[in-house]
Amino acid sequence: MLAYVDIQGRWLVEDPKVGPPHNKEAAERAQNIAAATGVPCQLVNYWNFSMDWMRANGVKGFCISGNTPDWAEYDWDTFNPLQEAICSGEFPVLGFCGGHQLIGLTFGAPCDALGPLEPGEVDLMPDYHPGMRKEKGYLPLKPKDPQHPLFKGFPPTGPVIMESHYWEIKELPTGFNLLASTDWCRIQVMQHQELPVFGIQGHPEAYTPEYPDGRQFIRNFAVTAGLIQP
Q1: Which CATH number fits domain 2-224: 3.90.650.10, 3.40.50.880, 3.90.76.10, 1.10.260.30?
Q2: 95 with 201: CB under 8 angstroms?
Q3: Can you list the positions of beta strands (E) in the chain?
Q4: Which residue is catalytic, options 41, 63, 97, 185?
Q5: I need a surface site. Which of 94, 190, 220, 221 has the fewest CB within 10 A?
Q6: What is the pLDDT of residues 115-148, one digit of tens each?
Q7: Does the annotation count 210 as an active-site position?
Q8: 3-state secondary structure string across 59-109
Q9: What percent of the chain has pLDDT over 90?
């Protein structure tokens, strides 16, 4: 069993208008992870997550979702069980977008906005933090080492992954290796040097028939982390 930990703000998940479509999408993404790995994947909200919950349910590894609120809007004490699991080394973890940033923050790295748009640059999400740079849409990653197991089965130019963010990790956390970048975001993919902890700023779990690379990326993570056989 795998887990997909949804870190969308609780106040949004429980909102009667915003919550239902978000919960539907989160369930679909958990199903995508299961389809990519061939292992059942249980959706769980971050406030219900703990290592005891993982052990009781036979969960061997987990992925962390993205989120829309800024980090200052959260009560950080609610992330303590999740951060404990990330640092434990007991469970392989792959963070997506906000989950990637949460891993960076857990290991002491600063996160902030990509920055303001330069003259002539197009605002890709004008209704979301207008005037700020965003990466939006299916974009190619630029691997530092195309032979790394995470990039198995992809051309040297790297996989094409869905991006939807305006924040990023500003400095590589201590103890991590940088694996891939994009034009606007240097720390796109990273891996801890000792723990089974991986992060990607994009959303491989949002793969589609037209853009299927995220499925292979998630499978590669599961193989690399020893969760499934090649």
Answers
A1: 3.40.50.880
A2: no
A3: 2-6, 41-45, 61-64, 93-96, 111-113, 135-140, 142-143, 160-165, 167-169, 176-181, 189-192, 197-200
A4: 97
A5: 220
A6: 999 898 888 888 888 998 989 999 999 999 999 9
A7: no
A8: CCEEEECCCCCCHHHCCHHHHHHHHHHHHHCCCCEEEECHHHHHHHHHCCC
A9: 90
Residue 17 and residue 57 in contact, taking contact as beta carbons nearer than 8 Å: no
**140-157, pLDDT tens digit by residue?**
999 999 999 999 999 988
165 labelled catalytic: no
DSSP codes joined into one string, 164-176 = EESEEESSPPTTE
Q: pLDDT tens digit string along 199-221? A: 999 999 999 999 999 999 999 99
pLDDT in tens, 23-33: 999 999 999 99
Tokens 């028939």 belong to 209
